[in-house]
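Q: What structure does this chain adopt?
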Amino acid sequence: MLDILKIKHFLRKMFTPVTIMFVPHSKTKPLNFKVPFIGIFTIAVLCCLGVVYISIIAVNTYEYYKMKNKLNYYSQQFTELNSTITSLKQADNAFRQLFSLGNRDRILEHADILDSGSIDIDMENLKKQINKTIESVDEINKYLRSERDIYLSTPKGLPVNGKISSPFGIREHPNTGIKDFHSGIDISTNPGTPVKATADGIITFAGWNGGSGNLVAIEHGHGFSTFYAHNRSITVRVGQKVKRGEVISYAGSTGNSTGPHVHYEIWKNGKAINPYEFLKGRS
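A:
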């Protein structure tokens, strides 16, 4: 009974009219009208619901664009990472092919084939790891290129097919019979046999040089230079770049010579060194 009375009292208050008055600052007559209290309550509730609805839409819109921006960011990251992973796979394959050759000389010969939330943190960490890997790959690549450059600049083997007839060092001169220092080796061969560069380099001299006859000199870099004397003819010119194995002249017996041969010298940092050390190349 008491509850029914409370409900009736509440409903009576809700439907009690409330006067709303608009008083202009001019002399215009004030406007007023009566509205049940429940009407004002309903309007207030609807306004609150409207504000909440608009807020939800605004938040959802913000979250949508935030998510969209993240998705674009992730898409870009995945694209970059995919490209990075592809590059790493290519580098891995290249290194596998190189190291499968099994021999240091062969490896260096072919080294030119190298020519936001927790997910954000994880992706950034992953990218950092990949970047570190890329740096390692770059370091290995640079190392191989540097080593290959040194390898190609280092004399290897004999410049001509033939037999070593006079060694490096103190020997008896074939013309005078006097012992003197021989700054290279003599390689006996048939006239006209092709003489080949023993390392990559640039021709610094190509022509007649007194007792050396027709002489070819090559600067290889890394302190190395080589000399090929007593040639019958020369096929290169000063300033020309040559590769290991490229023909630079033809053997002969020009200058102070007792027969067809090639006098071959290797210099390192301005000092003559024994070519025997380079007949098979560095291992």
